[in-house]
Design a protein that fits this description.
alpha/beta, 8-stranded mixed β-sheet, 192 residues, binds 5-O-phosphono-beta-D-ribofuranosylamine
Amino acid sequence: MPIKKIVILFSGTGTNLENLIKKLHQKAFDGFKIEVVHAITNNPEAKGIEKAKRLNIKTTIIDHKKFNAREDFDKEVVTLIKSLNVDLTILAGFMRILTPIFTENIKAINIHPSLLPLFKGANAIEKSYLSNMKIAGVTIHKVSSGVDEGEIIDQECFYKNENISIDDFEKKIHQIEYTLFPKAVIKVLSSS
Ligand code: GRF
């Protein structure tokens, strides 16, 4: 069975990283098997490092603070990704603004905790919670040069109960992320 290889980039807690590995790594889908060949983080303190290790996924730390220019960091990340020969790069809570050095060379998808094009950028969960909208949700999209602006691959929304606390709201967002993201990865790999 053909193998489709992916690499996962993360910056923090890594719950999406962990979920993707558990649901996709070495599993067979419609006509192909997925292999998470590597994980990459920009943050030496990221909790996700331990999670990847426990699941036997090799992780490389490329600390962005060691680079003077954003482009130099991106170059190093792109060189590593190219050397892995992956079919797709997954940004799972990777909190870096990417330059064209990355976006023009790497085929990647990203998860964003709002219904794009609303609430782009940082603190999307809080912005979506505080808005007067009656619905909220999660988006998976292609990575392009504009932050959170690439073509939308999939979205899921829920009704925002008026009395919901920020903690429960955040939990609901993550719960959706854990089903939507693996589904979207399979969808993109199926058509590539
Ligand atoms: C997720 O909510 C994701 O949508 C956002 O950053 C968060 C990452 O969480 N981009 P985790 O590190 O996967 O736990």
